[in-house]
Write a structure and sequence with these properties.
single chain; about 425 residues; alpha/beta; two-stranded antiparallel sheet
Length: about 425
């Protein structure tokens, strides 16, 4: 195996270098060959992409998306950043110096819609309700008048959580002690085959979330999907989906004993009986003083990082669990990552966010900037944890050379 240190490349040559699976195996860097590499930049203009799998794999033209020029498959912690040579937004010092075990990641609809943009139900509450309505109509589960009433409520943009709750109740009628499973049928219709609808940029974001989880961060979500769990399974990590119906597991999660679990505060579609949209659905948790004490302690002792969250702090379930009983929230330090244009919308809410101890941070101008920003943040935090734990991590000076991460670009010579 031959090793090449790419930190000697200039920024210009880094942008133009093109190394694919077939050429990497025969690469010996010389001045002539370096020129050839620079000329091949039309085929890949971003960075040298490195694969460090233990076993060689033949080059597959399907591994690279011709539109984005980025690898289709991302293996955790094995490849350098996508945009090492591009201008990067600075990371907020008060956030990047956190340890993973000090964080609670709050995943909203923005993350799910980035992972599987072809699924309208993942984009918003309105999208979910519309998808459930469509499924119910397809299965002839609603009378015409009922369908029109729900459609009007959706159009009027009333309290969407209540609209969703009413629809679920309508699709789950009781006959004696038996509850209909029509709602389950509708859920599976709406979230059918999520695995095949996941896109690469979104997987890149999930990789960073998983990286932080494996370093000790907790994760909760308002989403019904299990995209993170699906992605983790493909990476060899088993994540458990929790909901508020299991008080014991929720308590253990809050105590940090189930860090490789995702708490779905509204439930997850694979367990329809755990779907919670109405306060009555989580009274068992609210009445359990031990569970509530541990849950509320999280907001007081850890830093919440809101990803893809618009109005999560206004979510009645989130408020009941984390906000209502917590005093002096403005003294706390939490973070919400938003698009630059979205910062303007949040200005009128900034004071309200600060009252909850939340700093609003811009990750870039476009939604597509979030995966790269969050990857750098995750790497910074996890590398810092490694240094702190004395695991032989590179020094800070080694971590950045010519705008590159500490890890060198390794070109594996499979022909040797």
């Amino acid at each position: 195996m031959s090793v090449v240190d790419c930190t000697g490349f200039s920024t210009r040559s880094c942008k133009s270098a093109d190394v694919n699976g077939s050429s990497a195996s025969k690469l010996n860097i010389s001045s002539d060959q370096k020129s050839n590499l620079e000329l091949s930049g039309s085929r890949m203009a971003s960075v040298v992409t490195v694969k460090t799998e233990k076993r060689p794999a033949p080059a597959d033209p399907q591994d690279v998306d011709s539109n984005t020029k980025k690898p289709r498959i991302w293996e955790p912690s094995m490849e350098p950043s996508l945009n090492l040579c591009l201008p990067q937004r600075k990371l907020l010092p008060s956030l990047k110096t956190k340890r993973a075990s000090e964080l609670v990641l709050v995943i909203g609809t923005g993350v799910s819609s980035a992972v599987a943009p072809q699924v309208p139900a993942l984009r918003s509450w309105k999208g979910l309700i519309q998808a459930l309505l469509d499924a119910a109509n397809d299965f002839d589960l609603l009378e015409e008048e009922e369908s029109r009433r729900f459609q009007k409520s959706l159009k009027d943009d009333k309290n969407l959580v209540h609209v969703a709750h009413d629809l679920i109740q309508k699709l789950s009628p009781r006959t004696g002690n038996v509850r209909s499973t029509f709602f389950k049928d509708c859920l599976y219709e709406v979230f059918d085959d999520l695995e095949c609808k996941m896109e690469n940029a979104g997987k890149h974001l999930l990789r960073s979330v998983l990286q932080l989880m494996e370093s000790g961060a907790l994760v909760l979500t308002t989403n019904f999907d299990n995209l993170l769990e699906i992605y983790a399974a493909h990476q060899g990590s088993k994540l458990e989906s929790l909901d508020l119906t299991d008080e014991k597991k929720v308590l253990e999660w809050a105590q940090g004993k189930r860090s490789l679990s995702v708490l779905h505060i509204h439930g997850v579609y694979t367990n329809p009986s755990g779907i919670v949209l109405h306060p009555a659905g989580y009274q068992n948790v609210l009445r359990n003083t031990e569970v509530m004490r541990e849950i509320q302690k999280l907001y007081e002792t850890k830093s919440f990082v809101f990803l893809g969250c618009g109005r999560t702090v206004d979510d009645t379930t989130f408020q009941a669990l984390f906000l209502e009983a917590v005093k002096h929230k403005s003294d706390l330090e939490h973070f919400m990552l938003v698009r630059r244009e979205d910062v303007g919308e949040f200005k009128k809410l900034r004071d309200n966010m600060l009252d909850k101890g939340i700093k609003v941070i811009s990750y870039g101008n476009e939604y597509s900037d979030l995966p790269e920003y969050f990857e750098r943040l995750a790497n910074e935090i996890c590398n810092r944890d490694t240094v702190t734990n004395g695991w032989g991590s590179p020094s800070q000076e080694q971590e950045t050379q010519n705008g590159f991460h500490s890890q060198k670009c390794l070109l594996q010579d499979y022909s040797s």
